[in-house]
Amino acid sequence: MDCAEALMLCRTTSDSENCVLLSQSFQCFASLCYHIQGANGSGKTTFLRMLAGFYRPSTGEILWNGHNIQESGIFHQYKLQLNWLSLKEAIDDKFTVLNNVQWFELLESKEGKAMLALELMGLGRLANEKPRMLSMGQRKRLQLARLLAIDRPIWLLDEPSVALDDDGVKLLEYIIAEHRKYGGIVIVATHLPIEIEDPMILRLPPRFPRRMTHVDMLDRADIS
């Protein structure tokens, strides 16, 4: 059973003025969904990027099945379990919609799910079009189709509902539920409402500069 665990994470920004994510600890087992919540600038994306291994925490550690993901040989195994979706699309407009999904299948040595994934996301009729012809919502659906085609157990989703219409959000909710039904782990950060059954809520504290003036504090609505 896959288990992702974060222990007492803190990441200090390069200018050493801010500390994002103070003492966030959690465990996430198969079929669980963690919903990361917090104000703008609280570090939701930073948190996900640390879980993905893109950032190293300044203190603390991230464990996968009991092993620190930064250990030699562990990270390569860990990243093969991850599906990462962010606001950066990584969509190549030179290829067709179908090719954009098939390319990731080839990297995974998996084939045959690309067209099915596109059809599920309502993009089947656009499979041979170039992505530049797609709306913003359709481009997000294309990103979600890649999640389905690659089929890795741990999903890290950063604002997955941005640009989706109501039908698109319902599809997102459906694929999250189906992924969990078969033992998948979902860790999602979003400020937009989506329906998730029995999510574990992890609320990040506001990010406080280490040195704040009185004027800074008066300008912060989240300081009472």
TrEMBL record:
One example of a Gene Ontology biological process annotation: cytochrome complex assembly
Keyword Membrane belongs to the record: yes
The keyword Translocase is annotated on this UniProt entry: yes
Keyword terms, alphabetized: ATP-binding, Cytochrome c-type biogenesis, Membrane, Nucleotide-binding, Translocase, Transport
Occurrences of domain ABC transporter (ranges): 4-223
Superkingdom field: Eukaryota
A single MF term (Gene Ontology): ATP binding
InterPro entries in the record: AAA+_ATPase, ABC_transporter-like_ATP-bd, ABC_transptr_haem_export_CcmA, P-loop_NTPase
Pfam families: ABC_tran (PF00005)
Name recorded for this polypeptide: ABC transporter domain-containing protein
Organism: Flemingia macrophylla
